[in-house]
Amino acid sequence: MAKTLFDKIWDAHVVREVAGGLTVFYIDRHLIHEVTSPQAFDELTARGLTLRRPEQIVATADHNVPTRHQDQPIQDPLSRSQVDKLTENCAKFGVELYGLGHQYQGIVHVIGPELGITQPGLTMVCGDSHTSTHGAFGTIAFGIGTSQVTQVMASQCLLLDKPKRMRITLDGDLRPGVTAKDLILYVIFQLGTGGATGYFVEYAGSAIRGLSMEGRMTVCNMSIEMGARGGLIAPDATTFDYLKGRRFAPQGENWDRAVAYWQTLYSDEDAVFDAKLQFDASAIQPMITYGTNPGMGIPLSASIPVLNGGSEATSFDKSLRYMGFQPGESLLGKEINYVFIGSCTNSRIEDLRTVAAYVRGKQKAAHVEAIIVPGSKQVEQQAIAEGLDKVLAEAGFELREPGCSACLAMNDDKIPAGAYCVSTSNRNFEGRQGPGARTLLASPLVAAITAVEGRLVDITQYLN
Amino acid sequence: MEKFQTLRSGVVPLPIENVDTDQIIPARFLKATTREGFGANLFADWRYTSDGQPKPDFVLNDARYLGHQILLAGKNFGCGSSREHAAWALYDAGFRVVISSYFADIFRGNALNTGLLPLQVSDEVLQGLFEVVAQDPQAALTVDLQAQTLTVPGWAEVIHFELDPYKKECLINGYDDIDFLISQEAAITAFEQQRSWVF
């Protein structure tokens, strides 16, 4: 019977089906970090349980770490205690930890792929909603809560109901200046912030095939922002080329066997999806968000919509009040004080190259604070090896050390109340980048141009 | 996990859609390493001014709704971050039921694992419930989990709600998934021995 890519991987991981339609579902790889794991380790201990497969867990410290002076003790006592707790737990339970100072440390969804831990056909979870990122490799990957982290620790399984399957096809060539970030912001705008709730989404079509792995990760990363359990892209030569030779990728004969299997991971022609959507990728323009959820996006050169009543009117008005914007207004010309380039959405080497290529020989606007936080130590080292650190420094950008940083502002990297920040991260929720902070989500290219101009501009006029 | 069987309680109305878990519990309060105490910071940025004073126009600071254990919220409640701390914060603040016309997937699972019932109703019923509470802030709803019914004062018919039968049993008895998954040990071990896709 014809199967979707999702069904092929799902079916291979069913330990058994139990009454009521639930599935005991096997998890191949489990990523943990300091914020959502301490209560899980405690629960395990309280029940007299231990890790079932410690070798299938990898830990890093990312959410709550400073992005300056990582060689020194963490100043904030609560953050320090949380990071210390992760270190203690990993030592006690025998989990591989890439903590601060380690050459592999970084944002959990950046290091998994770059170390080759993420591979096609696997199932992966993490106590973080952006685990959907790993779907770019043809991996069933999704975020879980702390109780589920405990369940996977104890049993290597979860008890799940099977999501519905959606396919989103994007055919056509992306226009100059339009990136993977614009593509996914466009899709989320089309579906709305809850439009894919209950679904696992497969992205297909020539525009998706044409993306690099970094671009595909950006797309899958934001699947959760339209409510999807996860996103998936069928692996192909781009995927295999990216993985080959990575630290934990299969080697030698195993590599050939792996690729032979991975090549079977695609949706069969007659496979049935519960929902199918199609968009023309060539119609997508550089995007920006104006509101307080990622579905509130518009093309940069368009105007904020005007809403005529409806159940969403109260929420829409509240959102615009928070942002200090008016319905029907254009965002072009708006002064911006902060630019944040980073997060599991856009902190990979390709993102840093995009920014450096644009700002080379230019200067950020005097009133803009521009920080760029690499996704991992490896990205940071690669940027230095390519001389990007100098280009960025000369343009007035501050290159920090790796972590989640101002994406969720758990550490000291906060945007002040009322200030506007063009951010390459994934969420523009109220207060996400600090209490009162106003976030406008955009691509690294839009962020770089905004930093130089000091205001929002129609970026198509600024491309070479 | 505490058992949940029936609840009769007043409602706290929050007619906002797409309430994300960053609002329910902002990230800066996630630095604790235990499960307790998150209720004090529930909806912190909507509830308190920057110097920690209660904002009088936020519903949790409205004396009429004090002590009510049912939160009534706009659609797509709990979207965004997977932080289970959001469910813990609601529970810690005394809530036992959240009613909405739909919930984000991860939040729904986290709530059920916390002993907090995510009770899904239609958009029309949700609208009707907001009207009931607007007319009488003390209107008490009755949730009967065994019968899967919601009884609303003044309504001729009870509202039936759906819930996975396994999850229902878990809530009624205070069980969680760990015990069940541990009991599957033999099947899991057998499964692991035939995994062919790990290279």
TrEMBL record, chain A:
Cofactor(s) it depends on: [4Fe-4S] cluster
Class of this enzyme: lyase
GO biological process, one term: L-leucine biosynthetic process
Pathway assigned to this chain's UniProt record: Amino-acid biosynthesis; L-leucine biosynthesis; L-leucine from 3-methyl-2-oxobutanoate: step 2/4
Assigned EC number: 4.2.1.33
A GO molecular-function descriptor: metal ion binding
InterPro entries on file: 3-IsopropMal_deHydase_lsu, Acnase/IPM_dHydase_lsu_aba_1/3, Acoase/IPM_deHydtase_lsu_aba, Aconitase_4Fe-4S_BS, Aconitase_4Fe-4S_dom, IPM_dehydratase_rel_enz, IPMI_cat
Keywords carried by this UniProt record: 4Fe-4S, Amino-acid biosynthesis, Branched-chain amino acid biosynthesis, Iron, Iron-sulfur, Leucine biosynthesis, Lyase, Metal-binding
Residues binding [4Fe-4S] cluster, per UniProt: C344, C404, C407
Database matches in PROSITE patterns: ACONITASE_1, ACONITASE_2
Top-rank taxon: Bacteria
Residues of the Aconitase/3-isopropylmalate dehydratase large subunit alpha/beta/alpha domain: 7-454
Free-text cofactor note: Binds 1 [4Fe-4S] cluster per subunit.
Catalytic activity: (2R,3S)-3-isopropylmalate = (2S)-2-isopropylmalate
Protein family membership: Belongs to the aconitase/IPM isomerase family. LeuC type 1 subfamily.
HAMAP family hit by this protein: LeuC_type1
Subunit structure: Heterodimer of LeuC and LeuD.
NCBIfam families assigned: leuC, PRK05478.1, PRK12466.1
Function: Catalyzes the isomerization between 2-isopropylmalate and 3-isopropylmalate, via the formation of 2-isopropylmaleate.
Protein name: 3-isopropylmalate dehydratase large subunit
Species annotation: Hymenobacter wooponensis
Gene name as annotated: leuC
UniProtKB/TrEMBL annotation, chain B:
Official protein name in the record: 3-isopropylmalate dehydratase small subunit
HAMAP family: LeuD_type1
UniProt entry keywords in alphabetical sequence: Amino-acid biosynthesis, Branched-chain amino acid biosynthesis, Leucine biosynthesis, Lyase
Source organism (scientific name): Hymenobacter wooponensis
Cited function: Catalyzes the isomerization between 2-isopropylmalate and 3-isopropylmalate, via the formation of 2-isopropylmaleate.
Similarity comment: family membership: Belongs to the LeuD family. LeuD type 1 subfamily.
Gene: leuD
GO BP annotations, alphabetical order: L-leucine biosynthetic process
GO molecular function, one term: 3-isopropylmalate dehydratase activity
PANTHER family xref list: 3-ISOPROPYLMALATE DEHYDRATASE SMALL SUBUNIT, 3-ISOPROPYLMALATE DEHYDRATASE SMALL SUBUNIT 2-RELATED-RELATED
UniProt key word Metal-binding: no
Pathway where this protein functions: Amino-acid biosynthesis; L-leucine biosynthesis; L-leucine from 3-methyl-2-oxobutanoate: step 2/4
EC primary class: lyase
Keyword Amino-acid biosynthesis recorded: yes
